[in-house]
UniProtKB/TrEMBL annotation:
Name this protein carries in UniProt: Delta-aminolevulinic acid dehydratase
GO MF annotations, alphabetized: porphobilinogen synthase activity; zinc ion binding
Pathway linked to the protein: Porphyrin-containing compound metabolism; protoporphyrin-IX biosynthesis; coproporphyrinogen-III from 5-aminolevulinate: step 1/4
The organism's taxonomic lineage, starting at the top: Bacteria, Pseudomonadati, Pseudomonadota, Alphaproteobacteria, Hyphomonadales
Keywords: Heme biosynthesis, Lyase, Magnesium, Metal-binding, Porphyrin biosynthesis
């Protein structure tokens, strides 16, 4: 009887051999915990579009940082929800050295000194119009004027003890400007994680609810975030940001952009993080709640896919859950 010379199913027949021959596996070292903080007194406020994720006040954020440290999660990426009364046209609260983010950094660093703190550099949680920068009378986001503010925002974060500043605004030239500003202010060792390949995406919806920009944002961000038809442009963005001084780069969203993650890591050989964003999180949650998908299995599978594509780190709202499952 004829038989196949090679039977790939042999290495799939039992758990021990599947484990032995597995090519990639995510570990807790790959995780960055995405976290939303708020400036009120209520310890935890649920986010409707992100079941299981809550906005934390500073005290709870410090506790969560401690938990991250205990779980061995390397870093936390923090995003602010500030009181609407503090928002204005220019996002001036972003530069307040006693604002929510600087205070949260100090509290988290005190609670968990071994956990890296990554701060988003962009004005959208602070502006009354919800855009990432300053706008002119037509609503166009002004590049160079915005960059000047982002430099100041990054320095405020570094001064408060942020380990990594992560510009998510997509202005041209901001990485170089921020690097220069940090060096001048003496923050030689503050890392820059550039959201280099950030696409204008439908998957940010729940995040905008989470930081409170959804209701104020009247238009899209297509004049600064990337067009989802493009791949070569992502390579150019990353190459420019590395040239300007970025230490690590990011692809965002995650799952629909695995090809971009793979191209960047293979072609440019730079530490490439991927952001499993709010809309991806919400989609899994929504189907899991209906019993249509097994959440635990889905998130481990997705995390493996990111590793397989070449990601060196994964920013996710599931980090605490994953850290326990990947033990
Ligand atoms: C913008 C910013 C966004 C996210 C973090 N910072 C996207 C946007 O509003 O355009 C999205 C994060 C997520 O969806 O989980 N500065």
């Amino acid at each position: 009887m004829a038989f196949p010379a090679t039977r790939l199913r042999r290495t799939r027949q039992a758990d021990w051999v599947r484990r032995l021959t597995r090519e990639t596996r995510p570990t807790v070292d790959d995780l960055v915990w995405s976290m939303i903080v708020h400036d009120g007194d209520t310890p935890r406020i649920p986010i409707t579009a992100m079941p299981g994720v809550e906005r934390l006040n500073i005290e709870e954020a410090a506790k969560a940082a401690r938990r991250a440290q205990d779980l061995g999660i390397p870093a936390i990426a923090m995003f602010p929800n500030i009181d609407p009364s503090k928002k204005d046209e220019t996002g001036s609260e972003a530069l307040n050295p006693k604002g929510l983010i600087p205070e949260a950094i100090r509290a988290m660093k005190a609670a968990a000194p071994d956990v890296g703190i990554i701060c988003d550099v962009a004005l959208d949680p602070f502006t009354s119009h919800g855009h990432d920068g300053l706008i002119d009378e037509t609503g166009y986001v002004l590049n160079d004027e915005t960059t000047e503010l982002l430099v100041k925002q990054a320095i405020v974060q570094a001064e408060a003890g942020a380990d990594v500043v992560a510009p998510s605004d997509m202005m041209d030239g901001r990485i170089g400007a921020i690097r220069k500003g940090l060096e001048a202010a003496g923050h030689t060792n503050t890392l820059i994680l550039s959201y280099a390949a950030k696409y204008a995406s439908a998957f940010y919806g729940p995040y905008r609810e989470a930081v409170g920009s959804a209701t104020v944002l009247k238009s899209d961000k297509k004049t600064y975030q990337m067009d989802f038809g493009n791949s070569d442009e992502a390579i150019r963005e990353v190459a420019m940001d590395i040239e300007e001084g970025a230490d690590m780069v990011m692809v965002k969203p995650g799952l629909p952009y695995l090809d971009i993650v793979q191209r960047i890591s293979k072609e440019l050989h730079v530490p490439t993080l991927v952001f499993h964003v709010s809309g991806e999180y919400a989609a899994i949650q929504a189907s899991a709640q209906r019993g249509w998908i097994d959440e635990d299995r889905a998130i481990v599978e997705i995390t493996s896919a990111f590793k397989r594509a070449g990601a060196s780190g994964i920013i996710t709202y599931n980090a605490d859950k994953l850290a326990q499952m990947l033990k």
